[in-house]
């Protein structure tokens, strides 16, 4: 029976093990998350995809505010001369900038970049606003879209335009900037793990992989179900790399002019790609309850029968009133089977069926999206039982993802082991620190260094690439 | 005593009656709402200005959702060919478009507009998504920034880039589209009046003043303290003006291909300009409690004295816990007098002073920003008393604005009366409907038709401009 339904359904979605990439495309389009925009490489966030982004935004925003950050809105256009001020930064971003050269009928005297990121404009404003150490820290964030003229694109993972938040902070001391860099990495980790149910490896990027203009970049790396890494968020310590060319200076406690110490950090709609590729299955999306726009769908069964619609509606209303995010689906144009499939495809964590026999027995029938388990719950105390069930779904999904990751992470000691491990998973091994080894891994294995965990307990003493003496513990993986 | 404080303070802000425009600039910059961006005509929303926008956004967004709308995010770039599809629309917007012509190193084969508004891109997507009458209505909205290459700019009122929401809906019938157009106008009116405490005249625009591409445009018009009108929000009924060139069609209940009926509606950061110019005074901003990011500031007085800081903090915490938006200002680097001025400048509706004598007497001293009235409130039941006081401030501010508007609105019957009335206020008079009369008023009086109220009870039978027979009741005013 379950088998038959599977078959009906999977004709629409390519199986993951057949073609993971096509599976992904099938899911995002059929679950109505996203569509392609008219300009090459752009995407449209449809209502359901946008609702997930709104939830992510809300979860992050309250944590940013709780850690003393304030939101601002910066202009999207950046004069070329500002972009050119920090050498590494412009080198990193110039090839992917979309340039405005005309305003109305006039040709502009200077090209204007649509922001690929906003370090340069934040620095320009900070230079204007900052006077004395008393003004510090300034901890600002903005929610916006940015533009990077990418050659090859995939919705959520890499598009010309995407939505994100970018925090930019300036501090009195190097220590405070470093604290902020690590604090925000931890905020990201906590949201990934406790809200998105995605376990992440956090750590420091290599020199080669760090952000253009940063002194140090930290990342959280999530493992997708094809064993590839998705960089899901980064935080950067710029030191005074930007504040020097932009003259972001302040009068110190000692009455001297000093450069501010700066950080930036961002996560984007890419997180939606991470949710899909961490949790999705052959039936489509699976959304962790803490991020799901709809946590429970209430379906009247045999809804033409007397009292069913009213009874089901009453339950839906009661659950909504208790603060659960509930959808009452009383469409009579499609069958219950169609609805089962549709809400499974959309990843709703819990389905609540209310039929005549349920109502008679004072119960409802509940199906979990994570385990496909079916259970009956008494009407009495339903709200509390369902809230607890959602917590259990959340925990189970995290455990499933964690188990997958553990199975697909190998400690490696030789190049052969590295090669085997990155073919479908992460490798943790020693690295000498030479970027030639990174180049070799990239060229030969299509893998890259991901990050160095804070726990640097060694697992050997020679580099898994070149065999020379090594003291750095590094994650390697193929990556999106 | 009040006089002296005024004098200390007003050295920073130009009086309204001396130079209203300079007063406005002084207030927005000194209250730290906004700054100028590096590209001509752009603005930066600083934390306080951005917080007001976030509150406006929240108030509107919940009403949009309650009336069945969903949010989406559309790409910001629009190919020129799409912009050209609706003739009036392109004529209206082409002169103010910022064009992207280069992506990375390549020159693009087609110019891309940064959206000045998104009718064309919504229509493109609706054409793709819409199949049958069962799919209707589609009621989508997005929050974003748009770009209009304006020659002369003022923060919040007219800038090259500004933030807004744009709702775009498609419907099965002309009636439904018209209903939506009027419903959203009423949502705007309700938010303006009950949240922003700004009374507005709602009505229909003349043909000359309607949106480029619309069949009918409705607006809400607010009166600023210089008697000028600020168009604070518009809703448009497009009929099938866009759905025809964009082929937004559906299979009707009768099985025929029909064009969808479309609307759009938007309000922007301009509303912040409306708040400032409706409510501000010589001391700066005055924010209605329902929109104020900080509703009450709690100030410890003589805070070095034993127990004061703790006592004041406890009160602030108690008010916060009850859901009021409270700032506890315990800075010891500035005097209480400085704080009084600063929070008045920032328009915080209520100041709560807690000194040693207050604590001893089990009371606090409260100052209203709207009336400058000072009162003492017992600690017992403070939360409820303060919540009620904030409601009273909200009501009072609306009544003040309403009284000002009534005083400065005149029913006019002759051209001379019209001329006198629009010099510092609104005129309500009869209009024949000829756009030649509008041109004359514009050329000679620098005033425009604002809108025709839904209540068309006539106040004469001849046009106040040309003297010919007239059956339209129209508001005239100078406008921002």
What does this structure look like?
The structure is a homodimer of 480-residue chains. By secondary structure, chain A is α+β, with helices and mostly antiparallel strands. Chain A contains 15 helices and 24 strands. The first copy, chain A, folds into 3 domains: 270 residues, Bira Bifunctional Protein, Domain 2 (BirA Bifunctional Protein, domain 2, 2-Layer Sandwich); 95 residues, Anticodon-binding domain (Rossmann fold), CATH 3.40.50; 69 residues, C-terminal domain of ProRS (Translation Initiation Factor IF3), CATH 3.30.110. In chain A, helix 3 crosses helix 7. Strand 5 of chain A pairs antiparallel with strand 5 of chain B.
Give the overall form of chain A: globular
CATH topology of the largest domain in chain A: BirA Bifunctional Protein, domain 2
Residues in β-strands, percent of chain A: 25-35%
Cross-sheet strand order for the largest sheet of chain A = 3-7-8-14-11-10-9-23
CATH top level assignment of the largest domain in chain A: Alpha Beta
CATH superfamily name of the largest domain in chain A?
Bira Bifunctional Protein, Domain 2
Distance between the termini of chain A: 37 Å
**Which pair of chains has the greatest number of interface residues, and how are they split between the two chains?**
A-B, 55 and 55 residues
Oligomer: homodimer
Q: What is the total domain count of chain A? A: 3
| Known CATH architecture of the largest domain in chain A | 2-Layer Sandwich
Structural class of chain A: alpha+beta
Strand count of chain A: 24
Number of helices of chain A: 15
What's the overall average pLDDT of chain A, rounded?
Answer: 95
**Major sheet description of chain A:** 8 strands, mixed
Radius of gyration of chain A: 25 Å
Poorly predicted runs of chain A are 1-10
């Amino acid at each position: 029976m379950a088998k038959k339904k599977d078959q009906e359904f999977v004709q629409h979605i390519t199986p993951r093990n057949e073609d993971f990439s096509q599976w992904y495309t099938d899911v995002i389009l059929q679950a109505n998350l996203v569509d392609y925009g008219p300009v090459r490489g752009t995407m449209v966030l449809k209502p359901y995809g946008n609702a997930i982004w709104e939830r992510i935004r809300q979860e992050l925003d309250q944590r940013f505010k709780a850690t003393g950050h304030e939101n601002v809105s910066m202009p999207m256009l950046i004069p070329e001369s500002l972009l050119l001020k920090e050498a590494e930064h412009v080198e990193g971003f110039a090839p992917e900038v979309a340039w405005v050269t005309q305003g109305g009928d006039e040709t502009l005297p200077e090209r204007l970049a649509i922001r690929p990121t906003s370090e340069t404009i934040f620095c320009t404003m900070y230079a204007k606003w900052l006077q004395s150490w008393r003004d510090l820290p300034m901890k600002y964030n903005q929610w916006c879209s940015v533009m990077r003229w990418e050659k090859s694109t995939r919705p959520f993972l890499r598009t010309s335009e995407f939505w994100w938040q970018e925090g930019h902070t300036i501090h009195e001391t190097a220590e405070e900037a470093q604290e902020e860099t690590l604090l925000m990495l931890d905020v990201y980790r906590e949201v990934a793990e406790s809200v998105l149910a995605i376990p992440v490896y956090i750590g420091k990027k290599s020199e080669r992989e760090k952000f253009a203009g940063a002194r140090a970049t930290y990342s959280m790396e999530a493992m997708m179900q094809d064993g590839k890494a998705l960089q899901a968020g980064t935080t950067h310590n710029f030191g005074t790399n930007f504040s020097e060319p932009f003259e972001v200076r302040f009068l110190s406690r000692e009455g001297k002019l000093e450069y501010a110490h700066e950080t930036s950090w961002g996560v984007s709609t890419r997180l939606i790609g991470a949710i899909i590729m961490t949790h999705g299955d052959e039936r489509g999306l699976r959304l962790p309850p803490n991020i799901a726009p709809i946590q429970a769908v209430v379906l009247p069964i045999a809804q033409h029968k007397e009292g069913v619609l009213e009874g089901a509606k009453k339950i839906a209303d009661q659950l909504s009133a208790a603060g659960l995010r509930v959808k009452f689906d009383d469409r009579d144009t499609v069958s219950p089977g169609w609805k089962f499939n549709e809400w499974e495809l959309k990843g709703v964590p819990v389905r609540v069926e209310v039929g005549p026999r349920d109502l008679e027995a004072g119960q409802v029938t509940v199906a979990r999206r994570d385990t496909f388990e079916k259970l009956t719950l008494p009407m009495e105390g339903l709200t509390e039982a369902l809230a607890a069930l959602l917590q259990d779904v959340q925990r189970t999904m995290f455990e499933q993802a964690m188990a997958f990751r553990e199975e697909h992470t190998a400690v490696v000691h030789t190049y052969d082991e590295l090669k085997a491990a990155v073919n479908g998973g992460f490798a943790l091994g020693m690295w000498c620190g030479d970027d030639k080894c990174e180049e070799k891994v990239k060229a030969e294995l299509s893998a890259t260094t991901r990050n160095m965990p804070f726990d640097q307990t060694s697992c050997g003493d020679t580099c898994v690439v070149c065999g020379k003496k090594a003291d750095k513990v590094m994650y390697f993986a193929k990556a999106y």
